[in-house]
Amino acid sequence: RHFSEVKVPILMEFHRHIYNNSWHFSCGTKEYKILMDEFHHVSNAFLELGKGYQEAIEDITMRMGAGMAKFICKEVESIDDYDEYCHYVAGLVGLGLSKLFHASGAEDLATDALSNSMGLFLQ
């Protein structure tokens, strides 16, 4: 099967796989392969989190997976494409962190623009 035929469905469904501690997908090399082969540890840790944390992680994981899947099928050809790609792989990290901080009660929810900028800065 073609690479995209395998990877795109996994990326699109990854936010659901985190709830299933029997799911794994053997791929990659070195530490990445170990992570994917032993994904049940990630799922078990996720399932121990409070509902607010789970919802924040699921939302960002869903959005990030969809964005990454989009760029498997599309080349980065312009500055706008590059900005969008960076949003999916880094900016969403900032949004996710903001949602986690908010879920913990440690801070008010930051705007999406500020959270996206934080993720891009961290990248």
TrEMBL record:
<dbReference type="InterPro" id="IPR019845">
    <property type="entry name" value="Squalene/phytoene_synthase_CS"/>
</dbReference>
<dbReference type="GO" id="GO:0005789">
    <property type="term" value="C:endoplasmic reticulum membrane"/>
</dbReference>
<dbReference type="Pfam" id="PF00494">
    <property type="entry name" value="SQS_PSY"/>
</dbReference>
<protein>
    <submittedName>
        <fullName>Squalene synthase</fullName>
    </submittedName>
</protein>
<dbReference type="GO" id="GO:0051996">
    <property type="term" value="F:squalene synthase [NAD(P)H] activity"/>
</dbReference>
<keyword id="KW-0808">Transferase</keyword>
<dbReference type="InterPro" id="IPR008949">
    <property type="entry name" value="Isoprenoid_synthase_dom_sf"/>
</dbReference>
<dbReference type="GO" id="GO:0045338">
    <property type="term" value="P:farnesyl diphosphate metabolic process"/>
</dbReference>
<dbReference type="InterPro" id="IPR002060">
    <property type="entry name" value="Squ/phyt_synthse"/>
</dbReference>
<dbReference type="InterPro" id="IPR044844">
    <property type="entry name" value="Trans_IPPS_euk-type"/>
</dbReference>
